[in-house]
Amino acid sequence: MRIKFRSAYRAAYRAASRTALSIPVRWLPAYAIIAVIAALLLPSAITSAANAVTLLIGRITTGQPAYSGHIAPLFTPQVQYWSADIERWARERDLDPNLLATVMQIESCGHDKIGSSAGAQGLFQVMPFHFSTGEIYTDPETNARRGANFLAECLNYWSGGDPNLAMACYNGGPSVVSRPFHTWAHETRRYYVWGGTIYADAVQNKSDSPALDTWLNAGGIGLCQRAADNLGIALGIP
After folding, report:
1. Which residue of 9, 54, 137, 156 lies most exposed, with the fewest beta carbons within 10 A?
2. 10 Å Cβ neighbour count for 66?
3. pLDDT tens-digit series, residues 167-185
4. How far apart are the first and last CA of the chain?
5. Phi and psi of 59, rounded to 5°?
6. For residue 37, which of 53, 49, 52, 55 has the smallest C-alpha distance?
7. The whole model's pTM is what?
8. What is the separation of C-alpha 134 from the centre of its chain, rounded to a whole number of angstroms?
9. Whole-number mean pLDDT of the chain?
10. CA angle 219, 53, 22 (to 5 degrees)
């Protein structure tokens, strides 16, 4: 789903594209690219990303799981509505539930019946070609299974385990991973920045996220209002 973002994003991208963003993505760690853009968008983004990497490395080197198995409290009520399901779907595909929740947040904000003009459907805005004949696109279980399968493919095969590139792959297709950032579609570039910064906060189990707040204020709140109406719950966002 396309969201109209503030002119700050355009200014940030123009500034960043004159430097590191002209380099092919595969030559730079994903967090380095996020840091260049997000530093101009969100003052806390670099710290959040760095802390997230440190946390993950620390867990791995101490033998702890790379993720907790639960989603962070920062996600909106519409996504929290599906928290138990997200955690179960993530376990089934060996995914970080915070990664799956981040994708749901941006794709549908928990609206299981929503569709896009491009044909994407349901909670994870899965394109029709991912489904088998006879499957109901907006059925939450079916939609989540197909969406999680593709996200896992992006993570484990196309992005080399990088969750931020996996989100770019999820939005723009596997080919974006091997192309320079400046050649990506605008929607995919936005997805990479917003997804990466929200996910960095979620990995730290934060109760709030400046990145998520900015996404909401840039237009995401309208999507969440539609999701709240569909689920029959309060918007619950200040």
Report:
1. 54
2. 11
3. 999 999 999 999 999 999 9
4. 23
5. -65, -40
6. 49
7. 0.75
8. 28
9. 81
10. 65
